[in-house]
Amino acid sequence: MRQRWMGLAVLVGLALLVSPVAPTWGQNRGNAMTVTFKDDISTLDPAIGYDWQNWSIIKSIFDGLMDYEPGTTTLVPHLAESFTVSPDGKTYTFKLRRGVKFHNGREVTAADVRYSLERTLNPKTQSPGAGFFGDIAGVKEFTDGKAKEVSGVKIPDKYTVVFTLSKANAAFLHIMALNFAYVVPKEEIEKAGADFGHKPVGSGAYKVKEWVLGQRLVLVRNSDYFIKGRPYLDEIVFQVGVEPNVAFLKLQRGEVDILGDGVPPAEFTKVMNDTKLRTLVAVGDQLQTGYVTINTQVKPFTDVRVRRALNMAVDKQRIIRIINNRAVPAVQVLPPLMPGYDKEYKGYVFDVAQAKKLLAEAGYPNGFSTVLYANNTDPNPRIAQAIQQDLAAIGVKAELKTLAQSTVIEAGGTKGQAPLVWSGGMAWIADYPDPNDFYWPILSCSSLAQGTWNWAWYCNPRVEKMVEEADAMVQANQAAARDAKYREIYRLVMQDAPWIPIFHEKRYTMHTARMGGPPGLFNDPIHIPVHYTEVRLVQ
Amino acid sequence: MGGYLIRRLAQSVVILLGVTVITFALLYALPADPARMIAGRSATADTVARIRSELGLDQSLPVQYARYLGRLLRGNLGRSYAQKIEVTDLLRSRLAATFWLMLGGIAFELLIGLPAGMLSALRRRSAVDSSVMLGAFLGVSAPQFVVGLFLLYWLAYRWGLFPLGGYGTPAHVILPAFALGIAGGGWYARVMRSAMLDVINQDYVRTARAKGLSEPRVILRHAVRNALLPVVSMVGLDIGTFMGGVVVVESVFSWPGIGQLAWQAIQIVDIPVIMGVVVVSALAIVTGNLLADLAYPWLDPKIRYG
């Protein structure tokens, strides 16, 4: 008995200890890049993938008609060679590039463009992006099952696609650059069935080489990619399940190149004060605003003076210090990178006395009690506490409800439920770089229904009409006028004060010194964390 | 023995059923709508309703549960809401990693805990005893996340003796298994100590000494063997809990096991995956306990199941 037990223990111990211990653990990577993520990569089906992690990976495997100049928000034709817009803004004609091939060797044609869009719209696909295409004529009939095809998509020849819209939408080209409109080969989808998201075949710069669930995804360069000289890298390895603090150590040892989840908050100050590490961090803007929604349908927030008072009560600088100064204060809805951002607008200035005066005018000289909802992941509870303290200073006693993300989202989208919601960890990062993406889903009358993201339950018909007019300004030469109109729109919104804009987060991407290319690639507004097709090794 | 086994198996089935009922009820009581989470933030109410009915979420809870159970009995755990893949595939991809970590973790627990506990008992009320027990206390109470990062920082990052987390070679398993062993070893040491103290005052130990057996032989042959009984049931429990996934250690060490999967699924309310992990964990715990119970008669002939 003794021998058996002891023998077993010793054997197991020895087996564990004598195993070869290699001196390095993967520093020699050749022309490849390694990116770490904490969470698994979910589906890579462009009709379905909709998280910040898979969004850019999908972009490197598939292509759309439109894309952006790397590192910018400037639209460029991509699978399309050229396009024209009719004078009324309701007809878009795209001419496809010839000779672009899917990874399986077949040429991309206009029929694929239509098939892919109809697949996204088909309710069976369960695409979270179907709602973006509601302006194309015949979409409703198609999704309701009353039509076999979307009448607003026509393919007069093999290389031409014509879209007819029921209503002009200046953001339509951006919408055609969304992953949900990316082109997929029908035969591969029929072959893979529901597993297409794990066996993706596109026309993009990279192909999937290997996918070990829970461990790694390996992409390999598509040597037939239609843009000559791209991509630069032979391989990208995504290591998943890597704890961010450990990823940070791995990067310093040169084992990985990009921290997909960013610099761990606990290490941030150390990194930014370290002359050597500091050079490995690219700092840039993102299309994000963090805000507190004030439910305009809940008393006493039905009174605009109360909402304005709250806007004056919050010390945004102090909140930004909580997150190690990783943001700039926000005074308006749009982030600085967004067309239509108003550089002149000063918003509500932090002024406790003025806020108290406004509250008294509204009939609340002694304040009132309310509830503030927030996501329970750090740093959001700390931010919510700071807001709570600021509100207490003007007599508003806010009870904190820090809950799981999905619970807060549900509360915000339920009529009359959440008086105040801190949006951190949930909203709002733009889907595409157009000012209307900060209006329709989160501030419009038309979004008001159970489950809305318009947590302020804000509706101003006058503003809505102006947005419709602005979105009808589709021609390229109207862009400046449209931006001006949006500045006016968002000034009106802020007069109604449905939000307390708090900050615009900055992005900090940490990478090894061997990674190169223009600095903008490491803070690309569309590709997070980096532009996979464009980054390269330092020569 | 046969009758006992049948009774225990029947009990296990009841326990497993109970576990699925409770988890199912809890998950669906959450004020989060899975259909809305799948639909994403830009979806219209129509889309959400359509997805809800596709998933059968518009049915009453008992109907949903009955359907779930029907699928479960056929080995179908459903599809992950987030990853759009069969839950059985997700679990299968992680079982091996969890199994190796379970073996390694238990090995370290025994390697650390048993000698420490024995030493403590034999040198009772000495400085050795108090230091071992203090060490055990620290091991049990140290947060595994901190211990894990500490091990990684010094042994892997600074000294380069081990890989910085990950999975693949035997070298990868040592640190996470050791982190598990530190915590578990503390418990084992305490249990072993008190069991040994019980045993060495027994008559048969005195008899063995009186027979003139050497002291090591008395301790190892007569005392330890009997003191191991409570340890065996702890190993049985650990097989179950470790196979169900060790969330913290797996997360810190980038270990692609069941615990890491569970942690990710919980954060995004991926109900089919959570249910799948719960079923596997419950199954593992029930099996682990059963194994421990079956091991008793083998160790101690006085124990018999009728």
From TrEMBL, chain A:
Topology class, membrane: Lipid-anchor
Keyword annotations of the record: Signal, Transport
GO MF: peptide transmembrane transporter activity
One Gene Ontology term, aspect cellular component: ATP-binding cassette (ABC) transporter complex
Gene3D superfamilies: Dipeptide-binding Protein, Domain 3, Periplasmic binding protein-like II
Pfam families: SBP_bac_5 (PF00496)
Cell location: Cell membrane
Source taxon at top rank: Bacteria
Solute-binding protein family domain mapped to chain residues: 74-447
GO biological process terms held by the UniProt record: peptide transport
Protein family: Belongs to the bacterial solute-binding protein 5 family.
UniProt name for this protein: ABC transporter substrate-binding protein
Organism expressing this protein natively: Candidatus Segetimicrobium genomatis
UniProtKB/TrEMBL annotation, chain B:
InterPro entries linked to this entry: BPD_transp_1_N, MetI-like, MetI-like_sf
One cellular component term from this protein's GO annotations in UniProt: plasma membrane
ABC transmembrane type-1 domain boundaries: 95-296
Membrane-topology descriptor: Multi-pass membrane protein
Subcellular location: Cell membrane
Keywords in alphabetical order: Cell membrane, Membrane, Transmembrane, Transmembrane helix, Transport
Major localization class: membrane
A Gene Ontology BP annotation from the UniProt entry: transmembrane transport
Record field: transmembrane: 12-30, 99-122, 134-157, 169-189, 227-253, 273-296
Family that this chain belongs to: Belongs to the binding-protein-dependent transport system permease family.
Name of the molecule in the record: ABC transporter permease
